[in-house]
Design brief:
Helix content: 10-25%
Largest sheet: 8 strands, mixed
Strand order of the largest sheet: 2-1-3-4-18-15-12-9
Order of helices and strands: HEHEEHEHEEEEEHEEEEEEEEEH
Structural class: alpha+beta
Strand content: 25-35%
Mean pLDDT: 91
Length: 271
């Protein structure tokens, strides 16, 4: 019904060229069922972000953007752009990615998040069941007691110094009994001297609420920044991870009626 009534199908561009992870096949099919058209984009070869780009999606970049690429992303966002940054924890610095995120009031803490509350992780203290905060993206999941499982996540810090128009809200958070391993070559996962104390934001939403006098409406960029990308692994889709991603995309596109819990397949797969 939504397919035949929609005026146009939104387009998601998967940004490439920085050793990004690929979008899992199962999640791609679910996104297509939500009527998203998915394309790839190399900012090195394009003069600017294409006009039909409704959402830019970065999946675990392991190499930094060039300054020219970062400027194209900034220009896109300044023109009411929408973007998802799923940032895997890497040892090398990503200064141009950091500069884009800093412009929207957040920074990655580059420390492995460890959960000390045994009820908030699965198998490993680095496999987290973060708390779902109250937000349009997570509300239906909270109502249905669904969870998100993150794997080896880093925290997303909300900066004290930022634009006054920015509305930044936590989506996924750890408990007070969590810490971040700053030295990624650690031999013990226990909290040691130099580690940072939680709680941490694992994912945040960002709404740049710029008031337009002519239209009498707020307008500006919308972003979701998450300190993990491994959670996209298809084996975790049934937990609630796929619903979190799809709700995120619909929130970015202001498709609030499409933020929901999707039916799960009843087909069992056997080895």
């Amino acid at each position: 019904i939504h397919y035949v009534t929609a005026e146009e199908l939104p387009t998601i561009y998967l940004v490439t060229g920085h050793l990004e992870d690929s979008l899992p096949y199962d999640l791609r099919k679910q996104m297509e069922l939500e009527n998203y058209e998915i394309k790839e984009l190399s900012l090195l070869t394009e003069e600017k972000v294409p006009e039909d780009a409704d959402i830019l999606m970065f999946i675990a970049p392991k190499r930094d953007m060039t300054e020219d690429e970062a400027e194209k992303v900034k220009q896109y966002l300044e023109n009411q752009g929408r973007a998802v940054f799923l940032m895997e924890l890497v040892e090398n610095e990503l200064p141009n990615f950091d500069a884009v995120l800093k412009g929207y009031g957040v920074a990655l803490n580059r420390a492995l998040t460890v959960e000390g509350d045994t009820s908030r992780y699965w198998q490993s203290p680095a496999w987290l069941f973060p708390n779902l905060e109250s937000h349009d993206i997570t509300s239906p999941m909270r109502t249905n007691n669904m969870q998100v499982l993150t794997i080896g996540a880093q925290g997303v810090e909300i900066l004290d110094v930022k634009k006054r128009t920015l509305e930044i809200e936590p989506l996924l958070t750890t408990s007070d009994n969590s810490w971040g391993k700053v030295d990624l070559t650690f031999k013990s996962i226990q909290k040691e001297e130099g580690d940072i104390s939680g709680p941490f934001n694992i994912a945040v939403s960002i709404n740049d609420k710029i008031w337009n006098e002519k239209t009498a409406e707020y307008e500006g960029a919308k972003l979701v920044v998450m300190g993990d990308a491994e959670f996209l692994n298809p084996q975790f889709a049934s937990i609630g991870n796929a619903d979190f991603v799809l709700n995120t995309l619909n929130w970015l596109k202001d498709e609030h009626e499409s933020i929901s819990i999707r039916p799960k397949s009843i087909v069992s797969k056997y080895l």
